Amino acid sequence: MKKLFFGTTCVLSLAFSTSFAQHVAKQPVKQIREGKHNFTLQWISWDQPGKVQIKKQRDGTYTVKGEQRGENGDFVTIDGTLTMVTFNELIFKGKIQTRYATVNKGEVCDKTGTYHFLAKGARKYWRLQEMDNCEGNNVVDYVDIYF
User: Fold this and answer.
1) DSSP-derived secondary structure for the chain
2) Which CATH number fits domain 35-146: 3.30.1490, 2.40.128, 2.60.120, 1.10.3470?
3) pTM of the predicted model, to two decimals?
4) For the chain, what are the domain ranges?
5) What residue stretch is flagged as signal peptide (predicted)?
């Protein structure tokens, strides 16, 4: 009786796990929405976002280009490509520039290279993870691309 119970349990467990794995495999991978997205640098404003244009390329990457402008010549710009690792993790290659009058002596902070954007928890945006401003002194830039 024990062997019959154990055998039945094993067969049912295997059937359930195979069925569940097939169900998970059939779930569509969430993609980045093409089109205009809000784009912000906290020093400028979260309430008056700029815009970026995101467009999918044939190779599966996405181009991203846009800006947010504020008073006194303040701005953040982005121009490059995004590669989706997962929906919540993006690799960016290109150039991000920030400028805010009272940060880094009002000079442009230029970041050119490979960077990472993550969406954590319930956030509805991807945030640049290499957020140190060129000024140093624990000054950080929150550069966000909204879903």
Assistant:
1) -HHHHHHHHHHHHHHHHHHHHHHHHHSPPP-PPPEEEEEEETTT-SSS-EEEEEEE-TTS-EEEEEEEE-GGG-EEEEEEEEEEEETTEEEEEEEEEEEBTTBGGG--EEEEEEEEEE--TT-SEEEES--B-TT-TT-B--EEEE-
2) 2.40.128
3) 0.79
4) 35-146
5) 1-21
